[in-house]
């Protein structure tokens, strides 16, 4: 595909879920090639954040190939991400869900959550941004370029992909029973009102202190320690028609 870009490719339209969108982001980021999304996967969190219609045919109709929009991306090493980077309980759930052959779809994550709850323990973590440094026992850390992960969970409800900053959600140490009680509030974004939750805004985030797995756009990106940067205007998107989007 690199050769195609050099030959003057103008638009790349990706049909699929967040995994396919993630691959499209790797190709288009930092170039003049505009990315269009036609969601047909399980989660479709990137498309959801951009207001792309969930129905594939409606999404195709909504593409405005004459319009362009630039948004920010996150970057870890040489890898770009568009939605949320997570580490801790949610990343462990993602890892376990990927290993399950049954059930399929969102129910796979429900099974993975229950399995992780049985053995999960908060871990020490260091979070350093350009503004502050936190050290605490944490349940999870989510770094959001957009609000959603896990098929519509607004873990970073204030995140906007054209703000030039990440929204960071940090969940401190919670007893297993309290964590279980908090899980339903994740679906509504009300978790940020919990006293164990802290939110930050940052252009760069360094995570250290343990060896938790790191996932972004639902894809594995190694383990903590890791450095995450927000790159403003790194991706050009195909426009969405207001009449359809």
UniProtKB/TrEMBL annotation:
This is Diacylglycerol kinase (ATP). One of its GO terms (molecular function) is ATP binding. Residues 1-79 form the DAGKc domain. Transmembrane segments: none annotated. One of its GO terms (cellular component) is plasma membrane. The keyword Iron does not apply. Belongs to the diacylglycerol/lipid kinase family. Keywords: ATP-binding, Kinase, Lipid biosynthesis, Lipid metabolism, Magnesium, Metal-binding, Nucleotide-binding, Phospholipid biosynthesis, Phospholipid metabolism, Transferase. SUPFAM superfamilies: NAD kinase/diacylglycerol kinase-like. Its cofactor is Mg(2+). Pfam families: DAGK_cat (PF00781), YegS_C (PF19279). The lineage of its organism: Bacteria, Bacillati, Actinomycetota, Actinomycetes, Pseudonocardiales. InterPro entries: ATP-NAD_kinase_N (IPR017438), Diacylglycerol/lipid_kinase (IPR005218), Diacylglycerol_kinase_cat_dom (IPR001206), Lipid_Phosphate_FormReg (IPR050187), NAD/diacylglycerol_kinase_sf (IPR016064), YegS/DAGK_C (IPR045540). GO terms for biological process: phospholipid biosynthetic process. It comes from the Bacteria. It comes from Amycolatopsis xylanica.
């Amino acid at each position: 595909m690199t050769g195609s870009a050099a030959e003057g490719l103008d638009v790349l339209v990706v049909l699929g879920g967040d995994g396919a969108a993630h691959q499209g982001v790797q190709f288009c980021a930092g170039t003049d090639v505009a990315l269009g999304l036609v969601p047909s996967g399980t989660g479709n969190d990137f498309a959801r954040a951009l207001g792309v219609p969930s129905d594939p045919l409606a999404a195709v109709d909504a593409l405005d190939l004459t319009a362009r929009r630039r948004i920010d991306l996150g970057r870890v090493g040489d890898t770009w991400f568009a939605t949320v980077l997570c580490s801790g309980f949610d990343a462990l759930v993602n890892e376990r869900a990927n290993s399950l052959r049954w059930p399929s779809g969102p129910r796979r994550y429900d099974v993975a959550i229950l399995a992780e709850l049985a053995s999960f323990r908060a871990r020490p973590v260091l979070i350093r941004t350009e503004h502050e440094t936190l050290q605490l026992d944490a349940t999870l850390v989510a770094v959001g370029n957009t609000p959603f992960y896990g098929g519509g969970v607004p873990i970073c409800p204030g995140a906007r992909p054209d703000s030039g900053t990440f929204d960071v959600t940090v969940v401190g140490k919670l007893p297993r029973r309290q964590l279980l009680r908090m899980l339903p509030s994740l679906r509504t974004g009300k978790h940020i009102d919990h006293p164990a939750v802290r939110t930050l805004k940052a252009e760069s985030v360094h995570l250290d202190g343990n060896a938790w797995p790191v996932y972004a756009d639902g894809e594995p990106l190694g383990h903590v320690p890791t450095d995450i940067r927000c790159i403003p205007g790194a991706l050009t998107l195909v426009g969405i028609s207001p009449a359809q989007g």
